[in-house]
Amino acid sequence: MDILLRFYELVPVTLAQSLIYAFVAFGVMLPFRLLSFPDLTSEGSFPIGGCVAGAMIAAGVSPPLAILAGTFGGFLAGSATAMVSLKFRISSLLAGIIIVTMIYSINLRIMGRSNIALFQFDNLFDMIWPGMNNTLWQKIVFLGIGVSLLLGLAYAFLRTEKGIAFRAVGANLDMAEAQGIHSWWHIVLGFGAAGALCAFAGALIVQSQGFSDVNIGFGVLINGLAAVIIGELITGRDSVWRQLLAPIIGAVVYFQIISVCLALGLAPTDLKFATGALVLLMLAAPKILPGLKRNGDREKIRETV
User: Fold this and answer.
1) Which is nearest to 200 in space by CA: 77, 32, 34?
2) How many helices (H) and strands (E) does the chain have?
3) Main-chain phi, psi angles of 300, to 5 degrees
């Protein structure tokens, strides 16, 4: 009973956190699935969003403007990774590692120190509704609306001509270029959008927790990847709608698994190990249990009518 009670008490906390990290999972999914270009830049774009927003809020800038600036910083980080990879013809993974390494020094320059306390400054949540930042269910409703808007806008975009071209680049790059699609800009903008989503989440998390730190991005990639993999096992990938829904559902489920681990008495310092083990288990599950494979699950993402 004590375990169930602890889990029940943790659910609102982890649910609010999962809705913020759903933006990260969505940002991880974009290059990884829709563009078929694996990317590590979320480890840098997430903290740059938080560091830019934190530094600007501490300087007296309004939270909405600080979030926009942080989001733009993430867009630049993602775009830089794509440009380095395409221009110099190196692996997108190596390009991501290089950019993430450089971002760490940039974040220290932006903040002037390793962390900034923001408890005494305004935050977006309390600006929208006084006391929201300390009222979990209000925060959950607000974040849920934001995630729903992201899902709707992404689905609407991918059904447009530009969106179909974007998907075509990930499905078959050579064929897309043969059809006259400028793959360079689709990849750059896709990486930029992924970085912007991760940075937006970083800007939200620093206001939610009340401080900004240069190390907040550590492990965020594996969290996002875990959410994507778990979500895909639940929803499948046999349509655009399911693929877009996967990271959001996966983020919610992943953080509830974290709640279970904490309720069982697992030390917070062990959660990174547990997360890595969970990702390995999810990757191996379709091979260990063939029944988990879905007939419609292909490497190519397609629309079902």
Assistant:
1) 77
2) 12, 2
3) -90, 125
Whole-structure pTM value: 0.90
pLDDT tens per residue across span 200-236? 999 999 999 999 999 998 889 988 998 999 999 889 8
Q: What is the mean pLDDT of the chain?
A: 88
- Confirm if 22 and 172 have CB atoms less than 8 A apart: no
Q: In sequence order, what are the beta bridge partners of 213?
A: 115
Asked whether the beta carbons of 29 and 251 are under 8 A apart, the reply is no
Which residues touch 125 (CB under 8 Å, ≥6 apart)? 132, 133, 139, 142, 207, 208
Domain 2-292 in this protein, CATH class: mainly alpha
Measure CA of the first residue to CA of the last residue in the chain; give whole Å: 47
CA 252 to chain centre: 12
Residue whose C-alpha is closest to residue 221's, from 136, 121, 99, 105: 99
List beta partners, residue 211: 117
Q: Which tokens go with 79?
A: 């775009």
d(CA 158, CA 134): 36
3-state secondary structure of 119: coil
Encode 11-39: b = buried (16+ Cβ within 10 Å), e = exposed. eeebbbbbbbbbbbbbbbbbbbbbbbbeb
| Amino acid at residue number 269 | T
Q: 248 CB contacts (<8 Å, ≥6 apart)?
A: 22, 25, 26, 147, 151, 231
